[in-house]
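Here is one chain, start to finish.
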Amino acid sequence: MPHQEQVLAHGNLCAPGPPNNAGYNSNPVPVIIQTESRDKWSKKMDFLLSVIGFAVDLGNVWRFPYICYQNGGGAFLIPYVLMAVFGGVPLFYMELALGQFHRTGAISIWKHICPIFKGIGFAICIIALYVSFYYNTIIAWALFYFYSSFSSTLPWTSCDNDWNTENCTNYFGKDNVTWTNYSRSPAEEFYTRNVLAVHESSGLGGVGYIRWQLMLCLFLIFTIVYFSLWKGVKTSGKVVWVTATLPYVVLLILMIRGATLPGAWKGVVFYLNPKWEKLQETSVWVDAAAQIFFSLGPGFGVLLALSSYNSFNNNCYRDAIVTSLVNCLTSFVSGFVIFTVLGYMAEQRNVNVEDVARDKGPSLLFITYPEAIANMVGSTFFAIIFFVMMITLGLDSTFGGLEAIITAVMDEYPDTLSHRRELFVLGLVVVCFLGSLSTLTKGGAYVVKLLEEFGVGSSIIAIVFLEATAVSWFYGINRFSNDIKSMLGYTPGLFWKVCWVAISPAFLAYIIISSLLNPQPLTLFDYEFPDWSITVGYIIGASSFMWIPIYMVYKLVWTPGSLKQRLAVCLRPERTLPDIHTDSMGLSPVP
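Its structure:
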């Protein structure tokens, strides 16, 4: 239903402030009344759960615990918290405020901020597509495990299956079992040989044919995604009440069960034991910055899209603090869920925890944890709820990522798509499904790794760096602060302004430079990615980022006037009234 409301859709259209404070407009007054038919969240909790569901994903469960123990255990929390406070949370707050104020998606928002940077919006949508090509395949793996869990004896418990090899070694419940470098657990062989079948692939040069079991799982995942998104936030806002809350129930159950296992304390000590000397290593701070950035997820267009459906006066500041805290605490608690089980496995193998905790990434969730679950009392129950948790964690993030594309494109082409959302979402889901087919092959795990590393990686960090720079230095920190004041009734404090202008961009530049100076070799399952695949990876990364300079050139060429006039037009936000701000870079304190 169309509804009327007061909005400031074209920037901060305010009455001029006092003449003795030209750099800061202290009394913004709305001057435009617009009639909009834009959807709104039915309830405030629909929005909060959607944001939490997007930010809290599989990476919170598999990446944070590994990064934490690798980089000094409890000592890692110091750089992690500092990077969150000065880098991650300010960027998170900025995106929520931008989306709520301008009430539009990642593409069309730039005509209200700085038109020449509109290519950022197109780049974000392309990256979101790349993510959908591989991320949903990981959820499909979890669905395969979920189906396989409905048996009295879990199939990754023994070495008596068709897919097992002579290296399969089952050490649970047995004495005097020798574990060598060639030994493979039943869970590892189930994952690599039965689910992925990577042993039948020669690598990226010979990925083999599509596995129909995984294609069916992926089809079911995308069917759920379509019917959750096709009607907009009215439907997705209801679905997240299940998908965003259920993981916390499961995490609590698994944490309690893990704490009762023999040897659990070894894992907790290993997880949190502080190694203070690690703080002197630059790599620890880089990992902390990258972890908080990818955990909170600014730059993917999701926060812009989700907050654009808020009411104009919603307290986005409080939302940013609450959801950031929930995200970081979830990562921390997930470490206990994982490491109590790793301690238990070390006890059973009679080895050190560090020898068990070598798996990282998806392997931690698809090999290590299922292996431990298989040898618990009530293993079927715990396996079922664990993979339900993984599926729901993944679906939430998929909802957010695709909604970012949907909102951005529909807001950019409203005349064509405004009444065809169901068809557009269907077309998008079909494109994502077709784009994922290469990840369903027998060498699909290598494609997933390549897309994960290069499809997102440095490209998204560079895009957020440009976004933060464009908002703070071109749109103007005072103008942005006034926008927030018109929504909340007060301006952000000096801390937030300094973070937006200097600290957060420096935080992003630090990650970019460090990753470029210290590239890591790309390997998976003892397979080293060939040089040609790395070249392909760089092309994939460039294919999204290149639209930023391309659009800049296009905008300058097609704008009439001299070069100076063109630059003035391309850098100036589109407005319905003359721009009344003066000092766009002043850091005037709140009066």
